[in-house]
Amino acid sequence: xxxxxxxxxxxxxxxxxxxxxxxxxxxxxxxxxxxxxxxxxxxxxxxxxxxxxxxxxxxxxxxxxxxxxxxxxxxxxxxxxxxxxxxxxxxxxxxxxxxxxxxxxxxxxxxxxxxxxxxxxxxxxxxxxxxxxxxxxxxxxxxxxxxxxxxxxxxxxxxxxxxxxxxxxxxxxxxxxxxxxxxxxxxxxxxxxxxxxxxxxxxxxxxxxxxxxxxxxxxxxxxxxxxxxxxxxxxxxxxxxxxxxxxxxxxxxxxxxxxxxxxxxxxxxxxxxxxxxxxxxxxx
Length: 284
Ligand SMILES: Nc1nc2c(ncn2[C@@H]2O[C@H](COP(=O)(O)OP(=O)(O)O[C@H]3O[C@H](CO)[C@@H](O)[C@H](O)[C@@H]3O)[C@@H](O)[C@H]2O)c(=O)[nH]1
Ligand SMILES: [Mg+2]
Prior knowledge:
Blueprint lengths: L5 E7 L3 H16 L10 E7 L6 H10 L4 E5 L6 H11 L4 E4 L11 H6 L7 E5 L14 H14 L13 E4 H6 L10 H8 L7 E5 L14 H18 L4 H23 L17
Parallel strand pairs: 1-2, 1-4, 2-3, 5-7
Antiparallel strand pairs: 4-6, 5-6
Helix pairs in contact: 1-2, 5-9
Bound molecules: guanosine-5'-diphosphate-alpha-D-mannose (GDD) and magnesium ion.
Magnesium ion binds next to loops.
Catalytic activity: a di-trans,poly-cis-dolichyl phosphate + GDP-alpha-D-mannose = a di-trans,poly-cis-dolichyl beta-D-mannosyl phosphate + GDP
Protein name: Dolichol-phosphate mannosyltransferase subunit 1
Pathway: Protein modification; protein glycosylation
């Protein structure tokens, strides 16, 4: 067996129904004749938080079928970011990729994402805002697009990357090891790494992709997660600039909230009062 050079880390919570299509599609993409990365150099690590939904059995079956995939089941810890960090710590490959289990990050982009990493490109981001990738978050309800847009605007002062929130990203091991005090709470581990590993803009590669719709299971993006994002941002502003910037941050938050309220206002259907018919048929 050749040594593993690439590791795909997949944080997963209650994703049993998605693991087979995910793994088989990743390796099918890598097995294509035009894949820039050969399949035998790649391993997949699922980091599951004790879902007990059959995920382990699915992975065991895939292993028996010859796929280079393993599952780490955490029983004492929970959370997306810390799951990703754990996967990166266990990775054998020097080139590491993180992607969701629910197929919202299309497995067919994995070869291009992995191949984009090199000593001069320490970070790769799957971006939903790049040219030619198709629709941005098509099919999302207005509120979800507003949250995504607001989160992105707030991160602008921290990184030149166009979509540090996509959750579909890769990093070279040496840069991951450079990032100290990673925030293990919340959803925005890519942003945390970009800031704390001090990745310069010229070392970031971007791969445009179209964010899919979740087919099985539920999103874990809750109000609590969003609040954590705000506290994480505050910490990163503090880290990247100085304490004074916290004031600017609060101002920005206020503006974003006003913006969201305004969008909500224009997004609402106008209320039409329909007069109650008193003619035939009424009361039947
Ligand atoms: N191990 C583990 N995995 C988790 C946890 N919470 C979520 N995950 C896994 O993390 C992935 C993303 O979670 P979703 O619940 O599908 O999140 P989402 O709302 O679709 O958010 C995605 O899109 C955002 C962009 O708008 C991204 O910012 C975010 O990272 C994620 O990719 C999924 O594979 C999910 O199983 C957890 O506590 N533990
Ligand atoms: Mg999802």
